[in-house]
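Structural prep section.
Before we set up the soaks we want a predicted structure of the protein with zinc ion in place, mainly to decide which crystallisation condition to try first. Input record follows.
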Amino acid sequence: MTQNLIHRNRGLCFVLIILYVLVFCFPRRLSARNQPEEYTTNATQTIKVSNATRHDFSRLIDVQLGSHVSGVSELKRYLHRFGYVKDYGTDGSKNFSDVFDGHLQSAISLYQQNLGLPITGRLDTSTVTLMSSPRCGVSDTHMINNNSLHTTARYTYFGDEPKWNSDRLTYAFSKTHKLDYLTSDEVKAAFRRAFGHWASVIPVSFEEVEDYTTANLKIGFFVGDHDDELPFDGVLGTLAHAFAPKNGQVHFDAAETWVVNGDFGSKVAVDLESVATHEIGHLLGLGHSSHKLAVMYPTIRPRTKKVDLAVDDVAGILKLYGANPKLRLDSLTELKDSLNGGVSGRFLSGNVIGYALLVVLILLL
Ligand SMILES: [Zn+2]
Ligand SMILES: [Zn+2]
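Run finished without errors. Recording the tokens verbatim:
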């Protein structure tokens, strides 16, 4: 009787494993279009600090189609900046009007789709709140037109799915573009942890080197316009941006109040490890995810720590690089933590099949 039960359970386990492999090894290929442009940066930074802080669109809540309200033009510029509006106006200029027109309604619907919100085309509170939140400066164009709504996968890639073809990547910090209110050791430790999140799931190691010019991945903190056509905008707003493989550049807005030790005393404090983990995802080839729990979701609230990779992040990066041989054990550790009431169960959140597989693996061990 006991033997029969074991055999039956093993059969069930086998079926679950096959299901898992089918879902994760052959996810729907998500379309992705525009890849950030390559560029060269000057050795000398042009400092133009914008007076703007974060975008605050709260006065636009419930503005109706057809109405003319001051601030709508700013919203159109915001949506244009992140890839939701191509050209505006008959002359293709960027002179946006304050009229809530049909183009804006379509752009709002697309934004809601990409950010995992109910698609209403209206400026409801949740949409406006998200648009007012700090976010990554990488455009969402690679998310647009993906047909993944009926699948569980929400991750995306850039253009032709560029990736690194090496199992060892070097990274270095700019010696000129750096923060003056955190120590070098504090910044380096935050990045070591951020790289570690990705290294624990893929067979790629990250090694810090001194030479910024020859490192694969180049990390710097910049203010305002820094010659890559993606100027930073002061406190909050856009926090950082990175470029797809094999560009290797990642820039952080030096105007932010970056914190490395969980000291969220300031209302505008932003956790460096969290944003670094997100940007490293871009450096490795991931685009934005519409899954709110994913590290690759475009926005993050101030005073928030979000460093644990979600199943969606892991599924996306595994498809590009394959799995780290230690991945299974790490996952099991996280599962045990979550079962014990720990806080590191995010890897499993929202994915029943992944959860079932790990339970099965525990039973087999
Ligand atoms: Zn991003
Ligand atoms: Zn930049």
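Observations: The longest helix spans residues 2-25.
Flagged for discussion at group meeting.
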